[in-house]
Write a structure and sequence with these properties.
By secondary structure, the protein is mainly beta. It is globular, with a radius of gyration of 24 Å. 6% of the residues lie in helices and 58% in strands. The protein starts with a helix and ends with a strand. The strands form two sheets. It has a 20-stranded antiparallel barrel. Strands 1-2 form a two-stranded antiparallel ribbon.
Length: 528
């Protein structure tokens, strides 16, 4: 019944999807354009040529704002939001127009061959954000049929609406998996956005928005993404808010935001996530020179939960930050602040207060036109998925290059999480990934990827010791290797080949497994 309701909801709102082994939201040509754009990234922009200092908020800033205005974003968020407010214009994907409605209709069909070999306790993870339990090893000939509708309507000069839907049917002739008819989700999920932008004055902009999002994630017990063994978490969230941006002078900018996010999980297993969160942010930034900027940032959040045994969490923080250009090819950003949290049960009295100094530091180096690197550190308090507050320290490094036989990127990140409650044990994560490409021929590109991740748990205490959850008490390591290539058979037909290996090792048999997959997929797509 839930699935039927979700499909109806998806038809009314929006969905992104991928066919087996290949994106199917758009036509093949548009898919290639979008992938190229995503690979290029957007980064944070300053205020033109006048201000060349990095326009970054400190890493601990709240994710407040509308996705449509490019304001929301975890980690390093763009500070100069004034010039980033979007214009209401028809999307590039539109091929049909009926009055104020812009849309396109796409169909796709894929067929392929896949060989899978599994051992151990792991659950196989397939493509995109869609998981499948493989019942039998061996050969399969997966088929996927898809229908996509992308719609965008200009309601007034200031108000618009975007709604997309995609429905797919998956068929497995060899019965290694169950056939499925579903709204298949990409990372973005089913989404709809209502927003309007107002020009409060010549130098002030206001954005009102309401974002609806339904998505499926695969997470471990702590709520962190685990694509190779996590539990399925389906949820519907609605975020309504306001963003205000003001530039009193060319060198000054003031930004404020307020929002409320309601979350409804679709499984009783995650009932503790049901609730709502208020978020507020206020910042001021001043360009001292063309190469240096400073500012102040204050943010707050108040989380309220429906279940009686989960405490409400209140987080508040203030910090000073700076961004500067150290040389022609070297920029830096830093922040120093103070953060504190309070938890209360049923709004009666304070259970526990925590406070800490927060800091962030980042250096970005453009080594040459083809090579760049960044190193960063961040320390902050954050609300934990399973309740309470964690003190997190994160150190990261990224290096990318676009020249040579194998252009690609290398990244590594280490994080330590220290729960502020005695009932939960701490843990550390270390993840390193390498992705490279090689141009085999003029039309054939080989992509290679490798990721190594380690989870190191401290001695289990309290709830963790009593729960018996393997990922809370046992250490484990995950190695994944991927290779893929593809070529265009006809204008609308793409052939892709892929191979992957996943190996998770642990002293706990419930976490250990290996998985090997090879296959080829032929995808035909057409946009009307």
């Amino acid at each position: 019944m839930k699935k039927a309701i979700l499909i109806v909801l998806g038809l009314a709102l929006a969905a992104g999807t991928r066919t087996y082994g290949q994106a199917a939201d758009y036509g093949l040509e548009e898919t290639e354009v979008r992938e190229a754009a995503e690979a290029g990234g957007d980064g944070a922009s300053g205020s033109g040529t006048v201000d060349m200092a990095p326009a970054l908020m400190p890493g601990g800033s709240s994710s407040i704002g509308s996705a449509r205005s490019n304001i929301r974003g975890g980690g390093q968020s763009a500070m100069l939001r004034y010039d980033q407010h979007r214009e209401i214009t028809p999307p590039e994907y539109a091929t049909l127009r009926i009055g104020p409605l812009y849309s396109n209709v796409g169909i796709s069909q894929s067929v392929g061959y896949r060989y899978t070999r599994l051992s151990g306790a792991g659950v196989d993870y397939l493509e995109g954000s869609r998981r499948g339990d493989i019942k039998d090893d061996g050969s399969e000939f997966p088929m996927a049929s898809g229908l996509t509708l992308n719609n965008y309507m200009i309601i007034t000069r200031k108000i618009d609406l975007e709604a997309n839907v995609s429905v797919n049917y998956y068929h497995y002739p060899m019965k290694t998996q169950e056939d499925e008819l579903q709204v298949n989700l990409s990372d973005e999920g089913i989404f709809a956005t209502f927003s309007t932008q107002l020009l409060a004055s010549r130098n002030a902009k206001i954005l009102l928005y309401d974002d609806i999002l339904y998505r499926t994630a695969y997470i471990d017990t702590r709520g962190l993404e685990d694509r190779y063994g996590g539990r399925e978490y389906e949820s519907l969230s609605n975020t309504a808010g306001l963003d205000w941006d003001w530039k009193p002078t060319p060198l000054d900018s003031v930004s404020a935001a307020a929002s409320r996010r309601d979350t409804v999980p679709f499984d009783d297993e995650f009932e503790r996530q049901k609730g709502y969160v208020y978020g507020e942010m206020l910042s001021y930034r001043r360009s001292l020179t063309p190469f240096m900027a400073v500012g102040l940032l204050g943010n707050a959040s108040q989380s309220f939960y429906d279940v009686e045994d989960r405490s409400d969490v209140f987080l508040y923080g203030i910090s000073a930050f700076t961004g500067l250009r150290l040389s022609r090819n070297l920029t830096g950003d830093a922040s120093l602040g103070y953060q504190f949290s309070t938890t209360s049960l049923d709004g009666v009295g304070d259970e526990q207060d925590n406070s800490t100094m927060t800091a962030s530091l980042g250096l970005s180096h453009e080594i040459s036109e083809e090579r760049s690197q960044r190193v960063g550190y961040q320390r902050s308090l954050s609300e934990a998925f399973d309740g309470g507050v964690d003190l997190a320290d994160t150190l990261s490094y990224q290096y990318s290059w676009s020249s040579g036989i194998f252009p690609g990127s290398l990244s590594s990140s280490w994080s330590r999480f220290d729960p502020q409650e005695e009932t939960r044990n701490g843990y550390s994560d270390w993840t390193t990934g390498l992705n490279v490409q090689h141009q085999l021929t003029r039309v054939l590109m080989l992509s290679l990827g490798a990721t190594y991740a380690m989870r190191m748990n401290e001695d289990a205490v309290g709830d963790a010791a009593d729960s018996g959850e393997a990922d809370l008490t046992s250490d484990y390591e995950t190695l994944t290797l991927n290779a893929s290539t593809g070529f265009r058979v006809t204008r609308n037909t793409l052939c892709s080949l892929y191979a992957s290996h996943a190996d998770r090792t642990s002293d706990n048999e419930d976490l250990s497994y290996t998985r090997d997959t090879v296959g080829v997929t032929l995808t035909w797509g057409h946009q009307f």
